[in-house]
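Supplementary Text 2. Reproducibility record for the structural model of the 234-residue chain.

All settings were left at their defaults, and a single model was retained for analysis rather than an ensemble. We include the record here because the model underlies the residue-level annotations in Supplementary Table 4.
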Amino acid sequence: MSAPTGGGRPDGARTTPLRVDAQRNLEHVLRAAREVFGELGYGAPMEDVARRARVGVGTVYRRFPSKDVLVRRIAEEETSRLTDQARAALGQEDEPWSALSRFLRTSVASGAGRLLPPQVLRVGVAEEHGLPDHARLPQQRTQVAGAGELRLVPEAPAAVAAEDDAGAAQLLDVVGQLVDRARAAGELRPDVSVSDVLLVIATAAPSLPDAAQQAAASARLLDILLEGLRSRPA
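Retained model, structure tokens:
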């Protein structure tokens, strides 16, 4: 479908203000996209987003001419939110371990793991080719296939490729600072990398039908994972 005209841009932004009803529809679509992608992963079809937003699929495509454009919008917003959370932890916690654990708890509580951008969620390829630790990134699940079962995507869509996303680089840099501080203080296992921290965020945010059960499961799982990250006296 062709890109919108009359002030629209293919990245979902506009150069002119939206009408009230159009703005409301956009907010519904973005909220629905976060929910659907959070539950099913970025492989979910646009029809599911439209159904959740209670608008026609044509309305979604008028604002986002392809699913890649919508995925980029959601991923960029999530990247920015995670980066802000990491910076807040760096700036407000003097103790390195407290800063890292605060970032993880805040991110998991916000459900960030269900929307981590695909370009920061690759694993295996970098390690197999002898690349440095910061390049070893965990995969993104595409959906919850059953109780406790996660399906993973092998690579990121072209629309959200890492080399084109400065926001992803900023996120990795700030999380890297948290990791480096905790490691230098002797509070983080020396083999833990940025990718491991992102993997914790991804795995400690299960999508469960009951909100209270989901919160309790996330908190319990994160406590266990944090214990696994901490260094132990020899």
